[in-house]
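Hello,

Our lab assistant flagged a job as stuck in the queue for most of the afternoon. It eventually completed. Since we weren't sure the result was trustworthy after the delay, we are filing this so someone can double-check. Below is the sequence as submitted and the structure that was eventually returned. Let us know if re-running is recommended.
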Amino acid sequence: MPAAAVADGGWVELLDADEWSVGTSMTESNHEVTLLVREGCGACEPVLERLQSLCSEFGLDVTCIDVDEVASRDPELRAEFGDRLPVVLLDGREHSYWDVDEERLRKDLRK
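-- returned structure --
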């Protein structure tokens, strides 16, 4: 399974194309935070670091999806989000793009 290095020495697991589907089911007590990225995206790593820090406050992990890797299985994902990466999804829905709306995300994660 591919992985992406994070500046602090940690690792983020990337899902293979056969493991990703939009609308992944969730339990009502948890939120799912996903960051849509692309290899070579200069803005993606700093956003990932901020997102990981914020999500750790809530005991959540961040799942990274490379839209180009999953394009063969889910071309709509790249078509919808590929021009404004990185994109933060909360529970499978677009929450913010190009940056993390920290105040809004904290509020939504408390729900």
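-- support follow-up --
The delay was a queue issue, not a problem with the job. The result is valid. The domain at 3-19+31-110 is CATH 3.40.30.10 (Glutaredoxin). The chain has three helices and six strands.
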